[in-house]
Amino acid sequence: MLWLMKLLEQIGIYMLLIRRTFSRPEKHSILYRQVVREIEKIGINSFGIVVIISIFVGAVITIQVNFNIESPLLPTYLVGLTVRDSLLLEFSSTMMALILAGKVGSSIASELGMMRITEQIDALEVMGINSASYLILPKIIASVVFFPILCLLSIIVGLFGGYLVCVTAQIIPPAEYIDGIQYGFRPYYVSYALTKTVFYAFIITSVSAYFGYHVKGGAVEVGKSSTKAVVQSSIIILLANLILTRTILG
Amino acid sequence: MIEVKNLYKSYEDNYVLNDISARFKPGRCNLIIGQSGSGKTVLLKSIAGLIEVDAGEIWYDDQKFSHMDTKSKQEIRKEMGVLFQGAALFDSLTVEENILFPLDMFTDQSRAEKLDRVNFCLERVRVSGSNQLYPAELSGGMKKRVAIARAIALNPRYLLCDEPNSGLDPETAIVIDNLIKELTEEFQMTTIVNSHDMNSVLEIGDNVIFIYQGRLCWEGSRKEILKTDNEALNNFVFATNMARQIKKEV
Questions:
Q1: Closest approach of chain B CAs to the CA of A27, in angstroms?
Q2: What are the pLDDT digits (tens) for A105-146?
Q3: Where are the beta strands (DSSP E) in B73-189?
Q4: Cβ of residue B239 closer than 8 Å to a chain A Cβ
Q5: Chain B residues with CB inside 8 Å of A115's CB?
Q6: Which residues of A touch B86 (CB under 8 A)?
Q7: Spatial separation of the C-alpha atoms in residues A164 and A78, rounded to whole Å
Q8: ipTM of the complex
Q9: What is the tens place of the pLDDT at every residue in B181-216?
Q10: Beta-strand pair B55-60/B215-220
Q11: How many CB atoms lie within 10 A of CB B233?
Protein backbone atom coordinates (compact mmCIF):
# COMPACT_ATOMS: atom_id res chain seq x y z
CA MET A 1 0.00 0.00 0.00
CA LEU A 2 2.88 2.32 0.78
CA TRP A 3 4.13 2.21 -2.82
CA LEU A 4 0.64 3.06 -4.07
CA MET A 5 0.45 6.08 -1.75
CA LYS A 6 3.89 7.15 -2.93
CA LEU A 7 2.86 6.74 -6.57
CA LEU A 8 -0.31 8.78 -6.07
CA GLU A 9 1.68 11.46 -4.27
CA GLN A 10 4.16 11.61 -7.16
CA ILE A 11 1.35 11.88 -9.70
CA GLY A 12 -0.19 14.68 -7.65
CA ILE A 13 3.08 16.63 -7.51
CA TYR A 14 3.58 16.05 -11.25
CA MET A 15 0.09 17.40 -11.99
CA LEU A 16 0.71 20.49 -9.86
CA LEU A 17 3.97 21.09 -11.70
CA ILE A 18 2.20 20.78 -15.05
CA ARG A 19 -0.47 23.24 -13.92
CA ARG A 20 2.21 25.75 -12.90
CA THR A 21 4.06 25.13 -16.16
CA PHE A 22 1.02 25.98 -18.26
CA SER A 23 0.12 29.15 -16.40
CA ARG A 24 0.45 32.43 -18.30
CA PRO A 25 4.09 33.26 -19.08
CA GLU A 26 5.57 36.55 -17.80
CA LYS A 27 6.35 37.87 -21.27
CA HIS A 28 5.53 36.26 -24.58
CA SER A 29 8.62 37.72 -26.25
CA ILE A 30 10.83 35.98 -23.67
CA LEU A 31 8.91 32.71 -24.07
CA TYR A 32 9.45 32.90 -27.83
CA ARG A 33 13.19 33.50 -27.34
CA GLN A 34 13.41 30.58 -24.93
CA VAL A 35 11.52 28.27 -27.32
CA VAL A 36 13.98 29.09 -30.11
CA ARG A 37 16.89 28.31 -27.79
CA GLU A 38 15.32 25.03 -26.73
CA ILE A 39 14.60 24.03 -30.32
CA GLU A 40 18.31 24.34 -30.94
CA LYS A 41 19.28 22.48 -27.77
CA ILE A 42 16.67 19.74 -27.85
CA GLY A 43 15.88 19.44 -31.56
CA ILE A 44 18.67 20.55 -33.83
CA ASN A 45 21.34 19.03 -31.59
CA SER A 46 19.55 15.67 -31.91
CA PHE A 47 19.79 15.65 -35.72
CA GLY A 48 23.08 13.77 -35.70
CA ILE A 49 22.03 10.91 -33.48
CA VAL A 50 18.70 10.52 -35.30
CA VAL A 51 20.40 10.39 -38.71
CA ILE A 52 23.12 7.93 -37.66
CA ILE A 53 20.78 5.52 -35.85
CA SER A 54 18.07 5.66 -38.52
CA ILE A 55 20.41 5.04 -41.44
CA PHE A 56 21.92 1.98 -39.77
CA VAL A 57 18.59 0.61 -38.56
CA GLY A 58 17.09 1.09 -42.04
CA ALA A 59 20.00 -0.83 -43.54
CA VAL A 60 19.86 -3.62 -40.96
CA ILE A 61 16.09 -4.08 -41.26
CA THR A 62 16.51 -4.38 -45.03
CA ILE A 63 19.14 -7.11 -44.66
CA GLN A 64 17.14 -8.98 -42.01
CA VAL A 65 13.84 -8.84 -43.88
CA ASN A 66 15.51 -10.05 -47.06
CA PHE A 67 17.15 -12.88 -45.12
CA ASN A 68 13.83 -13.94 -43.57
CA ILE A 69 11.65 -13.85 -46.67
CA GLU A 70 14.07 -15.45 -49.07
CA SER A 71 11.57 -17.56 -50.92
CA PRO A 72 10.68 -17.79 -54.64
CA LEU A 73 7.01 -17.49 -53.67
CA LEU A 74 7.43 -14.06 -52.10
CA PRO A 75 8.07 -10.99 -54.25
CA THR A 76 11.25 -9.09 -53.37
CA TYR A 77 9.49 -5.74 -53.24
CA LEU A 78 8.12 -6.96 -49.87
CA VAL A 79 11.51 -6.00 -48.40
CA GLY A 80 10.90 -2.31 -49.14
CA LEU A 81 7.32 -2.55 -47.95
CA THR A 82 8.33 -4.14 -44.63
CA VAL A 83 11.14 -1.68 -44.02
CA ARG A 84 8.78 1.21 -44.70
CA ASP A 85 6.06 -0.07 -42.37
CA SER A 86 8.53 -1.00 -39.61
CA LEU A 87 9.96 2.49 -39.69
CA LEU A 88 6.59 4.19 -39.93
CA LEU A 89 4.69 2.16 -37.38
CA GLU A 90 7.27 1.60 -34.69
CA PHE A 91 10.88 2.53 -35.13
CA SER A 92 10.80 6.20 -36.09
CA SER A 93 8.20 7.05 -33.47
CA THR A 94 8.54 4.72 -30.49
CA MET A 95 12.12 3.46 -30.73
CA MET A 96 13.36 6.92 -31.62
CA ALA A 97 11.42 8.32 -28.63
CA LEU A 98 13.16 5.84 -26.35
CA ILE A 99 16.52 6.94 -27.72
CA LEU A 100 15.59 10.61 -27.31
CA ALA A 101 14.39 9.90 -23.77
CA GLY A 102 17.98 8.90 -23.06
CA LYS A 103 19.55 11.87 -24.76
CA VAL A 104 17.10 14.71 -24.18
CA GLY A 105 15.47 13.42 -20.99
CA SER A 106 18.71 13.00 -19.07
CA SER A 107 19.92 16.39 -20.26
CA ILE A 108 16.71 18.13 -19.09
CA ALA A 109 16.72 16.37 -15.72
CA SER A 110 20.36 17.14 -15.02
CA GLU A 111 20.09 20.75 -16.21
CA LEU A 112 17.11 21.46 -13.96
CA GLY A 113 18.62 19.41 -11.13
CA MET A 114 21.81 21.45 -11.20
CA MET A 115 19.78 24.65 -11.31
CA ARG A 116 17.87 23.46 -8.26
CA ILE A 117 20.88 22.55 -6.14
CA THR A 118 22.79 25.70 -7.06
CA GLU A 119 19.74 27.77 -6.03
CA GLN A 120 19.20 29.16 -9.54
CA ILE A 121 15.55 28.06 -9.40
CA ASP A 122 15.19 29.77 -6.00
CA ALA A 123 16.73 32.88 -7.54
CA LEU A 124 14.00 32.86 -10.23
CA GLU A 125 11.29 32.38 -7.63
CA VAL A 126 12.46 35.26 -5.42
CA MET A 127 12.52 37.51 -8.47
CA GLY A 128 8.79 36.82 -8.71
CA ILE A 129 9.11 34.58 -11.76
CA ASN A 130 7.13 31.37 -12.16
CA SER A 131 10.20 29.14 -12.54
CA ALA A 132 8.21 26.13 -13.80
CA SER A 133 6.65 28.11 -16.60
CA TYR A 134 9.89 29.91 -17.46
CA LEU A 135 12.06 26.79 -17.53
CA ILE A 136 9.78 23.92 -18.52
CA LEU A 137 7.18 25.37 -20.89
CA PRO A 138 9.72 26.30 -23.61
CA LYS A 139 11.17 22.78 -23.45
CA ILE A 140 7.74 21.20 -23.86
CA ILE A 141 6.78 23.49 -26.75
CA ALA A 142 10.14 22.95 -28.46
CA SER A 143 9.96 19.17 -28.23
CA VAL A 144 6.29 18.92 -29.22
CA VAL A 145 7.02 21.05 -32.28
CA PHE A 146 10.35 19.52 -33.21
CA PHE A 147 10.12 15.81 -32.36
CA PRO A 148 7.66 15.15 -35.24
CA ILE A 149 10.25 16.70 -37.58
CA LEU A 150 12.85 14.31 -36.14
CA CYS A 151 10.40 11.45 -36.67
CA LEU A 152 9.94 12.38 -40.33
CA LEU A 153 13.68 12.73 -40.71
CA SER A 154 14.17 9.30 -39.17
CA ILE A 155 11.67 7.73 -41.62
CA ILE A 156 13.31 9.32 -44.65
CA VAL A 157 16.87 8.55 -43.56
CA GLY A 158 15.91 5.00 -42.52
CA LEU A 159 14.43 4.33 -45.95
CA PHE A 160 17.54 5.80 -47.51
CA GLY A 161 19.67 3.48 -45.36
CA GLY A 162 17.77 0.52 -46.79
CA TYR A 163 18.26 1.85 -50.32
CA LEU A 164 21.99 2.31 -49.73
CA VAL A 165 22.40 -1.28 -48.60
CA CYS A 166 20.46 -2.45 -51.66
CA VAL A 167 22.80 -0.49 -53.91
CA THR A 168 26.06 -1.30 -52.17
CA ALA A 169 25.47 -4.90 -51.04
CA GLN A 170 23.12 -5.75 -53.91
CA ILE A 171 20.65 -7.48 -51.61
CA ILE A 172 17.72 -6.81 -53.91
CA PRO A 173 17.53 -4.62 -57.00
CA PRO A 174 17.13 -0.98 -55.84
CA ALA A 175 14.21 -0.49 -58.22
CA GLU A 176 12.27 -3.28 -56.47
CA TYR A 177 13.09 -1.78 -53.09
CA ILE A 178 11.63 1.54 -54.26
CA ASP A 179 8.59 -0.26 -55.66
CA GLY A 180 8.10 -1.88 -52.26
CA ILE A 181 8.32 1.48 -50.48
CA GLN A 182 5.52 2.79 -52.70
CA TYR A 183 3.39 -0.33 -52.72
CA GLY A 184 0.12 -0.07 -50.76
CA PHE A 185 1.25 3.10 -49.02
CA ARG A 186 -1.24 4.40 -46.50
CA PRO A 187 -0.64 8.07 -45.64
CA TYR A 188 -2.61 7.43 -42.48
CA TYR A 189 0.44 5.64 -41.07
CA VAL A 190 2.41 8.88 -41.22
CA SER A 191 -0.16 10.78 -39.18
CA TYR A 192 -0.30 7.83 -36.77
CA ALA A 193 3.49 8.02 -36.28
CA LEU A 194 3.42 11.80 -35.87
CA THR A 195 0.54 11.69 -33.37
CA LYS A 196 2.43 9.17 -31.25
CA THR A 197 5.57 11.32 -31.44
CA VAL A 198 3.72 14.39 -30.12
CA PHE A 199 2.58 12.40 -27.08
CA TYR A 200 6.05 11.00 -26.54
CA ALA A 201 7.59 14.46 -26.78
CA PHE A 202 5.32 15.69 -24.02
CA ILE A 203 6.07 12.63 -21.87
CA ILE A 204 9.84 12.87 -22.26
CA THR A 205 10.09 16.59 -21.44
CA SER A 206 7.50 16.79 -18.68
CA VAL A 207 8.57 13.62 -16.85
CA SER A 208 12.28 14.53 -17.06
CA ALA A 209 11.54 18.09 -15.96
CA TYR A 210 9.56 16.73 -13.01
CA PHE A 211 12.52 14.67 -11.81
CA GLY A 212 15.04 17.45 -12.34
CA TYR A 213 12.90 20.20 -10.85
CA HIS A 214 12.34 18.33 -7.59
CA VAL A 215 15.92 17.25 -6.87
CA LYS A 216 17.02 17.60 -3.28
CA GLY A 217 20.63 17.22 -2.18
CA GLY A 218 23.77 17.31 -4.26
CA ALA A 219 25.48 16.01 -7.37
CA VAL A 220 24.72 12.36 -6.56
CA GLU A 221 20.98 13.11 -6.40
CA VAL A 222 21.18 14.96 -9.72
CA GLY A 223 22.70 11.84 -11.29
CA LYS A 224 20.01 9.66 -9.73
CA SER A 225 17.23 11.96 -10.92
CA SER A 226 18.64 11.87 -14.41
CA THR A 227 18.61 8.06 -14.41
CA LYS A 228 15.09 7.98 -12.96
CA ALA A 229 13.93 10.43 -15.62
CA VAL A 230 15.16 8.17 -18.42
CA VAL A 231 13.79 4.97 -16.88
CA GLN A 232 10.39 6.36 -15.98
CA SER A 233 9.83 8.19 -19.24
CA SER A 234 10.81 5.03 -21.16
CA ILE A 235 8.27 2.98 -19.21
CA ILE A 236 5.57 5.60 -19.72
CA ILE A 237 6.39 5.76 -23.44
CA LEU A 238 5.93 2.00 -23.77
CA LEU A 239 2.65 2.18 -21.88
CA ALA A 240 1.48 5.11 -24.00
CA ASN A 241 2.51 3.19 -27.12
CA LEU A 242 0.19 0.35 -26.17
CA ILE A 243 -2.71 2.66 -25.36
CA LEU A 244 -2.26 4.85 -28.44
CA THR A 245 -1.88 1.90 -30.79
CA ARG A 246 -5.02 0.31 -29.40
CA THR A 247 -6.89 3.62 -29.61
CA ILE A 248 -5.73 4.75 -33.03
CA LEU A 249 -5.40 1.48 -34.93
CA GLY A 250 -8.14 -0.28 -32.98
CA MET B 1 10.88 47.73 7.03
CA ILE B 2 10.56 43.97 7.39
CA GLU B 3 9.03 42.51 10.51
CA VAL B 4 8.60 38.92 11.61
CA LYS B 5 6.23 38.00 14.41
CA ASN B 6 6.23 34.74 16.34
CA LEU B 7 7.62 32.57 13.57
CA TYR B 8 7.57 28.83 14.03
CA LYS B 9 8.97 26.22 11.68
CA SER B 10 9.60 22.58 12.46
CA TYR B 11 10.86 19.59 10.54
CA GLU B 12 9.25 16.51 12.04
CA ASP B 13 9.59 17.13 15.81
CA ASN B 14 12.55 19.46 15.59
CA TYR B 15 11.79 23.18 15.88
CA VAL B 16 14.16 25.08 13.61
CA LEU B 17 12.44 28.41 14.29
CA ASN B 18 10.85 28.75 17.69
CA ASP B 19 8.86 31.93 18.32
CA ILE B 20 11.12 34.32 16.44
CA SER B 21 10.10 37.97 16.39
CA ALA B 22 12.28 40.77 15.02
CA ARG B 23 12.20 44.08 13.17
CA PHE B 24 14.60 44.93 10.37
CA LYS B 25 14.80 48.65 9.67
CA PRO B 26 15.65 50.31 6.34
CA GLY B 27 18.98 51.95 5.64
CA ARG B 28 20.77 49.66 8.10
CA CYS B 29 22.55 46.34 7.83
CA ASN B 30 20.53 43.87 9.86
CA LEU B 31 22.57 40.77 10.61
CA ILE B 32 21.28 37.36 11.59
CA ILE B 33 24.04 35.37 13.22
CA GLY B 34 24.21 31.91 14.71
CA GLN B 35 25.98 28.59 14.49
CA SER B 36 25.58 26.30 11.50
CA GLY B 37 22.19 24.60 11.82
CA SER B 38 20.81 27.26 14.17
CA GLY B 39 18.03 28.20 11.74
CA LYS B 40 19.50 31.33 10.09
CA THR B 41 19.02 30.16 6.51
CA VAL B 42 15.52 28.83 7.27
CA LEU B 43 14.65 32.24 8.74
CA LEU B 44 16.01 34.12 5.72
CA LYS B 45 14.33 31.77 3.24
CA SER B 46 11.07 32.07 5.18
CA ILE B 47 11.34 35.86 4.93
CA ALA B 48 11.93 35.50 1.18
CA GLY B 49 8.91 33.19 0.97
CA LEU B 50 10.92 30.19 -0.24
CA ILE B 51 9.93 28.21 2.86
CA GLU B 52 6.41 28.19 4.30
CA VAL B 53 6.41 28.77 8.05
CA ASP B 54 4.14 26.72 10.35
CA ALA B 55 2.90 29.76 12.25
CA GLY B 56 3.64 33.46 12.61
CA GLU B 57 3.56 36.51 10.40
CA ILE B 58 5.98 38.19 7.99
CA TRP B 59 5.37 41.84 7.13
CA TYR B 60 6.94 43.91 4.36
CA ASP B 61 6.17 47.46 5.45
CA ASP B 62 2.38 47.45 5.80
CA GLN B 63 1.80 44.31 3.74
CA LYS B 64 1.37 40.93 5.34
CA PHE B 65 3.56 38.66 3.20
CA SER B 66 2.84 35.38 4.94
CA HIS B 67 -0.42 33.76 3.79
CA MET B 68 -0.52 36.05 0.74
CA ASP B 69 -1.64 34.49 -2.55
CA THR B 70 1.11 33.70 -5.07
CA LYS B 71 0.30 36.64 -7.35
CA SER B 72 0.57 39.23 -4.55
CA LYS B 73 3.74 37.57 -3.29
CA GLN B 74 5.23 37.89 -6.77
CA GLU B 75 4.55 41.64 -6.68
CA ILE B 76 6.51 42.03 -3.43
CA ARG B 77 9.25 39.80 -4.73
CA LYS B 78 9.80 42.20 -7.61
CA GLU B 79 10.96 44.70 -4.98
CA MET B 80 13.26 42.15 -3.39
CA GLY B 81 16.89 41.46 -4.23
CA VAL B 82 18.36 38.23 -2.94
CA LEU B 83 22.01 37.28 -2.78
CA PHE B 84 22.42 33.54 -2.41
CA GLN B 85 25.25 31.74 -0.68
CA GLY B 86 26.59 30.33 -3.95
CA ALA B 87 25.68 33.49 -5.92
CA ALA B 88 23.13 31.50 -8.01
CA LEU B 89 24.07 33.20 -11.26
CA PHE B 90 22.52 31.61 -14.33
CA ASP B 91 25.29 29.44 -15.80
CA SER B 92 24.11 29.65 -19.37
CA LEU B 93 24.02 33.46 -19.41
CA THR B 94 26.85 35.98 -19.50
CA VAL B 95 27.33 38.51 -16.73
CA GLU B 96 25.51 41.11 -18.81
CA GLU B 97 22.62 38.75 -19.56
CA ASN B 98 22.37 37.80 -15.88
CA ILE B 99 21.85 41.43 -14.89
CA LEU B 100 19.63 42.13 -17.88
CA PHE B 101 17.42 39.23 -16.88
CA PRO B 102 15.23 40.98 -14.25
CA LEU B 103 15.17 44.12 -16.41
CA ASP B 104 13.93 42.14 -19.42
CA MET B 105 11.33 40.42 -17.29
CA PHE B 106 9.86 43.35 -15.45
CA THR B 107 10.57 46.57 -17.32
CA ASP B 108 9.63 47.99 -20.68
CA GLN B 109 12.82 50.03 -21.01
CA SER B 110 14.63 50.22 -24.32
CA ARG B 111 17.66 48.02 -24.90
CA ALA B 112 19.99 51.03 -24.51
CA GLU B 113 18.42 52.01 -21.19
CA LYS B 114 18.74 48.48 -19.89
CA LEU B 115 22.38 48.28 -20.92
CA ASP B 116 23.02 51.60 -19.18
CA ARG B 117 21.53 50.17 -16.02
CA VAL B 118 23.63 46.99 -16.36
CA ASN B 119 26.80 49.02 -16.72
CA PHE B 120 25.82 51.27 -13.80
CA CYS B 121 25.26 48.23 -11.57
CA LEU B 122 28.53 46.61 -12.64
CA GLU B 123 30.39 49.82 -12.03
CA ARG B 124 28.71 50.17 -8.65
CA VAL B 125 30.02 46.75 -7.57
CA ARG B 126 33.36 47.43 -9.25
CA VAL B 127 33.38 44.72 -11.90
CA SER B 128 33.04 46.91 -14.99
CA GLY B 129 34.19 45.30 -18.20
CA SER B 130 33.16 41.77 -17.27
CA ASN B 131 29.95 41.97 -19.33
CA GLN B 132 30.72 39.15 -21.73
CA LEU B 133 32.19 36.69 -19.24
CA TYR B 134 30.31 33.60 -18.12
CA PRO B 135 29.89 32.79 -14.40
CA ALA B 136 32.31 29.86 -14.77
CA GLU B 137 35.03 32.35 -15.76
CA LEU B 138 34.64 34.46 -12.60
CA SER B 139 36.37 34.17 -9.23
CA GLY B 140 34.28 33.63 -6.06
CA GLY B 141 34.44 37.31 -5.12
CA MET B 142 33.49 38.45 -8.62
CA LYS B 143 30.54 36.06 -8.68
CA LYS B 144 29.27 37.59 -5.45
CA ARG B 145 29.69 41.10 -6.85
CA VAL B 146 27.82 40.21 -10.03
CA ALA B 147 25.09 38.59 -7.92
CA ILE B 148 24.82 41.84 -5.94
CA ALA B 149 24.65 43.78 -9.21
CA ARG B 150 21.79 41.54 -10.37
CA ALA B 151 20.06 41.91 -7.01
CA ILE B 152 20.11 45.72 -7.19
CA ALA B 153 19.28 45.96 -10.91
CA LEU B 154 15.62 46.71 -10.26
CA ASN B 155 16.34 49.14 -7.41
CA PRO B 156 14.90 46.85 -4.75
CA ARG B 157 13.53 48.07 -1.44
CA TYR B 158 14.62 44.91 0.32
CA LEU B 159 17.94 43.10 0.06
CA LEU B 160 18.37 39.64 1.55
CA CYS B 161 21.85 38.12 1.65
CA ASP B 162 22.55 34.53 2.65
CA GLU B 163 26.14 34.27 3.86
CA PRO B 164 27.46 36.70 1.25
CA ASN B 165 31.09 36.11 2.11
CA SER B 166 31.19 32.37 2.61
CA GLY B 167 34.11 30.81 0.77
CA LEU B 168 35.91 34.13 0.33
CA ASP B 169 39.24 35.18 1.77
CA PRO B 170 38.97 37.66 4.70
CA GLU B 171 40.03 40.66 2.63
CA THR B 172 37.54 40.01 -0.20
CA ALA B 173 34.88 39.18 2.40
CA ILE B 174 35.24 42.61 3.98
CA VAL B 175 35.08 44.25 0.55
CA ILE B 176 31.76 42.47 -0.13
CA ASP B 177 30.45 43.39 3.33
CA ASN B 178 31.32 47.05 2.85
CA LEU B 179 29.74 47.00 -0.58
CA ILE B 180 26.49 45.72 0.90
CA LYS B 181 26.63 48.38 3.61
CA GLU B 182 27.36 51.15 1.12
CA LEU B 183 24.48 50.11 -1.16
CA THR B 184 22.11 49.75 1.79
CA GLU B 185 22.81 53.28 2.95
CA GLU B 186 22.85 54.75 -0.56
CA PHE B 187 19.54 53.23 -1.67
CA GLN B 188 17.97 53.11 1.82
CA MET B 189 17.15 49.42 1.42
CA THR B 190 16.04 47.14 4.22
CA THR B 191 18.95 44.73 4.23
CA ILE B 192 19.13 41.43 6.07
CA VAL B 193 22.42 39.54 6.04
CA ASN B 194 22.84 36.02 7.27
CA SER B 195 26.34 35.42 8.54
CA HIS B 196 28.52 33.42 10.81
CA ASP B 197 31.56 35.49 9.96
CA MET B 198 32.61 37.57 12.95
CA ASN B 199 34.46 40.07 10.78
CA SER B 200 31.14 40.88 9.10
CA VAL B 201 29.40 41.29 12.43
CA LEU B 202 31.98 43.72 13.71
CA GLU B 203 32.29 45.55 10.39
CA ILE B 204 28.70 46.13 9.26
CA GLY B 205 26.35 44.92 12.01
CA ASP B 206 24.13 47.94 12.66
CA ASN B 207 21.53 45.65 14.15
CA VAL B 208 22.46 42.09 15.07
CA ILE B 209 20.17 39.26 16.11
CA PHE B 210 21.64 36.05 17.45
CA ILE B 211 19.74 32.82 16.87
CA TYR B 212 20.54 29.96 19.19
CA GLN B 213 18.83 26.58 18.88
CA GLY B 214 16.00 28.08 16.87
CA ARG B 215 15.27 30.90 19.34
CA LEU B 216 16.15 34.56 19.24
CA CYS B 217 18.74 34.68 21.98
CA TRP B 218 20.11 38.21 21.78
CA GLU B 219 19.61 41.45 19.85
CA GLY B 220 21.75 44.59 19.74
CA SER B 221 24.39 46.50 17.78
CA ARG B 222 27.96 45.45 16.99
CA LYS B 223 29.25 47.72 19.74
CA GLU B 224 26.99 46.07 22.28
CA ILE B 225 28.40 42.67 21.36
CA LEU B 226 31.68 43.71 22.89
CA LYS B 227 29.99 44.42 26.22
CA THR B 228 27.42 41.63 26.39
CA ASP B 229 27.51 38.97 29.08
CA ASN B 230 25.25 36.60 27.11
CA GLU B 231 27.16 33.35 27.44
CA ALA B 232 25.93 31.66 24.29
CA LEU B 233 26.72 34.74 22.21
CA ASN B 234 30.14 35.17 23.79
CA ASN B 235 30.96 31.52 23.15
CA PHE B 236 29.92 31.97 19.54
CA VAL B 237 31.51 35.34 18.77
CA PHE B 238 34.64 35.00 20.85
CA ALA B 239 35.26 31.33 20.19
CA THR B 240 39.06 31.42 20.43
CA ASN B 241 41.20 32.19 23.48
CA MET B 242 42.78 35.08 21.65
CA ALA B 243 39.37 36.58 20.84
CA ARG B 244 38.34 36.27 24.50
CA GLN B 245 41.58 37.97 25.53
CA ILE B 246 40.91 40.83 23.10
CA LYS B 247 37.38 41.23 24.45
CA LYS B 248 38.73 41.48 27.99
CA GLU B 249 41.15 44.17 26.91
CA VAL B 250 38.41 46.08 25.07
A1: 7
A2: 999 999 999 999 999 999 999 888 999 999 999 999 999 999
A3: 80-83, 158-162
A4: no
A5: 91
A6: 118-119
A7: 17
A8: 0.85
A9: 999 999 999 999 998 888 888 888 899 999 998 899
A10: unpaired
A11: 20
